Amino acid sequence: MAFETAVSGINAATADLGVIGNNIANSSTTGFKSSRAEFADVYATSLLGAGGNAIGKGVSLAGVTQEFTQGNISFTNNALDLAINGNGFFLLSDDGASLYTRAGNFQVDREGFLVTNEGHRLQAFGVNSVGEIAGQAGDLQLDTSLIDPNPTGLADLTANLDSREIAPAVPFGGPFDAFAMPPTVPDPDSFNATTTVTIYDGLGNAHAMSTYFVKTANANEWEVHSLVDGVTTSGPDTLTFQSNGKFDPTTLPVDISINGWNPLNENGLPTGADPQDLTISMSQFTQFGAEFAVSSAVQDGFTTGQLHGLEIDDTGVVFARYTNGQARALGQIAIAGFSNPNGLQPTGDTSWAETFSSGAATLGAPGSSGLGVLQSGALEGSNVDITEQLVNMIVAQRNFQANAQVIQTEDTITQTVINLR
All domains of the chain, ordered by start, with CATH? Predict the structure, then answer.
C-alpha cells in the first residue's frame, strides 16, 4: 500500500520545511551558514538484493548539509568586530574545549579576555618579550595595567646651523643652575641658536633637555652646550664642518655624551630615578647659508601609559595603543582550517565542533596556507539567500501537498475495496 510511501514523503517535506525555516530564521544571524536537506530513495531488499521490478518504499532524509560559502561583509565602528574573508574559522575555548565559529562579534570581559556573547574565549598565538609572534595558541587577554616607562638613552637631532652667523659678543658662561638662589640661566646674547627636546627618566618623569649652539671665531666651528631642566650637563663640545657645510665622513658619528645625569624634580630634588647616560646624535647636522631650523628631533624614551585602544590588521596581529603613544603586539589571532568543513558538528550559538569526518583542525595565521584574511571593524553576515529559500519553501509545500494527495487517493481506493459486496 502507498500509505507508508506517502507518509515518508510527508516526513521528508516536513524536514525540508524545517531546514528552510531555520535558514530563514537565521537570515540576519552573524556568521550563520545555510543548510539544505538531502534525500535518498528507499527500497526493500533481501540478502540477494532488490528485484528488477522492485517498487520503492518512499524517501528518507539522507543528511542535512551546511553550505560554507562566503557571507556578505558589513562594516561597523567597533574594532573588536572581526570578519574572515575567505576560508577558516575563529578558534574558541569553552572551558578548555575547542569550538569554531565565523561570528566575529567579540567583546572584552571583566578579566580582559576577548570573548563571544556566550563567554567563549578567542584564541591567539602569543608574543615573546620582544613582541615577536611565537608560541602556541591561547586565550587572548588585554593587559589594562600601566606599561613600564622607558628612560631616554638616545636623542637624535637633525638641524641646519646658519653659516652666516658670527660669534656672539657675550661669552656663553656657565655652568648654569636654574635651582640656584638666584637662578643662573644663559644670556640670550651669548648663543646663536637653541632647541629643546623632552626626555624621560627611569620613572617616566618628563624633563626638558636644551641644547645651545654658539658660533666660534674659527670658520665652520661651533660650540654646543647642553642643559637638562636648566642645569648644565655637558659642554662645551665642538662641531667642525667642512667647507661644503657637512661633516667629514671620517669623523662620523658625531655624538655628544652626557654621563651620570641625575634626574631632578621641579624643586631641584632627586626624583628617585637612577642616574642615566644620554647620547645626543648630531651626525645629520649641516651648516648651510640658511636660517637655523630643526627638521627632526627623536628620542627613544617614553613615560608610563595606559591602554587607549586596539588595532587589528588583516594578518590578525592585535596591537594595543597606549596613552603615551606606544603600540605593542599582544598576539596574533589564530584561524582554523579543515579539510572537510561539512563534517563539522553544529553546536548552536553559531559554533561548530570538530568531528572525525571533518578532520583535525589546522591552525595558522590569517592569510597563510589558504586561510582567509581578517577585516577589523566588520562582521560577516549570514549567507542565506531569502529569495532562494522562499522558492524552496514553495517546492517543499508542493511536495507535502502531493504526498498528502497520495494518501487521500489511497484512502479512496481502500474505501472502495471495503465497500465491495
Answer: 3-69+390-418 (no CATH), 73-140+307-380 (no CATH), 154-299 (2.60.98.20)
